[in-house]
């Protein structure tokens, strides 16, 4: 995974795990790899991954069983809400960025519509 200098690494790793939950790579009830395994995978300090796991638990996305590890919560509503929140964040960033080019709302809708129609072909 390549990290972007614009956001803290732990947030980027959290987003990657959230995406894996949303797209079903990580399913409800799945055990997350250990902090050490994930630190090696992402080539980061284990303390960074410890923070990731703490934040995911604080956000009620995962839970920890002492001596066993961290697991994805078995809550379909949480996954639906997570998907909506992440989609909203992506859209907000897109709109903010494209408005910097001078596009108005109608122009933005037209660009998106054209792109979606292009993908259907």
UniProtKB/TrEMBL annotation:
SUPFAM superfamilies attached to this UniProt entry: Winged helix' DNA-binding domain (SSF46785)
Domain HTH gntR-type: 7-75
Keywords associated with the record: DNA-binding, Transcription, Transcription regulation
Regions that span the bilayer: none
Family matches, as InterPro entries: Tscrpt_reg_HTH_GntR, WH-like_DNA-bd_sf, WH_DNA-bd_sf
One Pfam family linked to the record: GntR
Top-rank taxon, per record: Bacteria
GO MF assignments: DNA binding; DNA-binding transcription factor activity
PANTHER family to which the protein is assigned, alphabetical: GNTR-FAMILY TRANSCRIPTIONAL REGULATOR (PTHR38445:SF6), HTH-TYPE TRANSCRIPTIONAL REPRESSOR YTRA (PTHR38445)
Protein name: Transcriptional regulator, GntR family
Species in which this protein is naturally found: Clostridium acetobutylicum (strain ATCC 824 / DSM 792 / JCM 1419 / IAM 19013 / LMG 5710 / NBRC 13948 / NRRL B-527 / VKM B-1787 / 2291 / W)
């Amino acid at each position: 995974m390549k990290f972007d200098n614009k956001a803290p690494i732990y947030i980027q790793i959290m987003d990657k795990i959230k995406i894996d939950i949303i797209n079903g790579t990580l399913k409800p009830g799945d055990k997350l790899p250990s902090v050490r395994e994930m630190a090696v995978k992402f080539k980061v300090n284990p303390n960074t991954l410890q923070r990731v796991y703490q934040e995911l638990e604080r956000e009620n996305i995962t839970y920890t069983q002492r001596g066993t590890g961290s697991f994805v919560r078995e809550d379909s509503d949480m996954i639906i809400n997570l998907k909506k929140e992440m989609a909203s964040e992506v859209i907000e960033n897109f709109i903010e960025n494209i408005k910097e080019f001078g596009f108005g709302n109608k122009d933005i809708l037209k660009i998106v519509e054209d792109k979606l129609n292009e993908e259907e072909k």
